[in-house]
Specification:
Shape: globular
CATH class of the largest domain: Alpha Beta
Strand order of the largest sheet: 2-3-4-11-5-6-7
Number of helices: 12
CATH topology of the largest domain: Ribosomal Protein S8, Chain: A, domain 1
Number of strands: 12
Distance between the termini: 8 Å
């Protein structure tokens, strides 16, 4: 399995995007976001996505050079249209605008549609957390990307519809909760299929509704489906996320016959200093974390971590040791790069 240093990987992926037709700044932003996901241990949202993005460019489903359009705007509200540009590029710009608005008003709600795949959802609330804000985000896939069976059903009706929330801390990295409303991300199943590994029990069903651990049964034909987390509770969260992200933005909710995959979203930011005061808020958060971590440990555990800490540790290790990439995934990435004349792939 190749193990690639993040610095080399960033340049190689960025060069590949640029050679395929992206603007240099777009290539850099998207490459950084994908590599950062790998560094955090979220390989399902990492550089394995690069060949898929480039295929979308080839098919006219992703628009290099697109400009973010403000559809509706007030002091504390905005609706954006991403023009099917790179999701990470459009998403970061929309979040920066939202942060600026929240600085002035104390809180802001922004919605977006026609963004291509935005990558790791937690990146955007985390941007706000680093600016002293709470960020809450819902996202869907425009009615395409249907993967999840509703509670009580066996056919694909919803997308993964993740929810991400980030909270700043005074002397530590932010608490970041970034969870899919289904039991496993589709990208992880794709990695398991590539590696010929079983999918965890209770995560997927085949086309007849039977539990299975075979990734091929999920993809079909005929296709199976993902299962929601916590049964009816995850189903409810996924349904609400589809509405908040899709119906409010105008991007659309899951529906028959629409299979173009993009992202629409709802992002809510709260400026802590304006609402409570950062010092008092930070003290409450620190006290809570200290109290939670003081619990006696369950068998097999050496410590209690807050959401975001495992990613920080994985990032530190992979920054030092390199990023492992499955052989078949790396072959796809290198083959895509060679197609556009980028031949200086780093060796692992």
């Amino acid at each position: 399995m190749p193990i690639i240093h993040s610095t080399e990987l960033r340049k190689f992926i960025a060069d590949t995007f640029t050679a395929a037709g992206a603007l240099p700044e777009e290539g850099r932003i998207v490459s950084d976001a994908l590599v950062d996901a790998n560094l955090a241990g979220h390989d399902s949202h990492g550089v394995m996505r690069a060949p898929y993005y480039i295929r979308w460019m080839e098919q006219g489903l992703m628009t290099p050079g697109a400009k973010l359009e403000v559809v509706t705007e007030t002091e504390s509200l905005a609706v954006f249209d991403g023009g099917w540009g790179f999701g990470q590029v459009m998403g970061q710009e929309a979040t920066r605008i939202a942060i600026g608005k929240a600085r002035k008003t104390g809180s802001v709600t922004v919605s977006g549609r026609n963004f291509c795949h935005m990558g790791r959802l937690g990146d955007y609330p985390a941007m706000a957390a680093r600016e002293g804000m709470v960020g809450i985000m819902f996202i869907n896939t425009h009615g395409g990307g249907k993967l999840v069976a509703p509670f009580g059903g066996i056919e694909r009706r919803l997308s993964a519809n993740p929810i991400a929330i980030a909270v700043p801390r005074r002397d530590a990295g932010p608490i970041i909760v970034d969870v899919s409303t289904c039991k496993i991300a589709e990208g992880k199943i794709r990695n398991m299929q590539t590696a010929n590994q079983p999918v965890p029990d209770g995560s997927i069903i085949d086309a007849d509704g039977n539990p299975t651990t075979d990734a091929n049964a999920f993809y079909g034909p005929p296709p199976g489906a993902l299962l929601p987390i916590a049964e009816h509770k995850g189903y409810g969260l996924g349904l609400i996320g589809d509405i908040l992200a899709g119906a409010l933005s105008g991007g659309g909710c899951s529906r028959p016959g629409d299979n173009r995959v993009g992202n629409s979203f709802l992002l809510i930011l709260v400026d802590i200093e304006r609402v409570r005061g950062a010092e008092a808020f930070g003290q409450d958060v620190d006290n809570l974390v200290e109290y939670v971590k003081s619990s006696r440990l369950a068998p097999g555990f050496s410590e209690i971590l807050t959401p975001g800490e495992p990613e920080e540790r994985t990032q530190a290790r992979r920054e030092k040791e390199g990023i492992p990439i499955h052989e078949a995934t790396w072959e796809d990435i290198v083959g895509t790069a060679k197609k556009y004349g980028v031949t200086d792939a780093p060796s692992g």
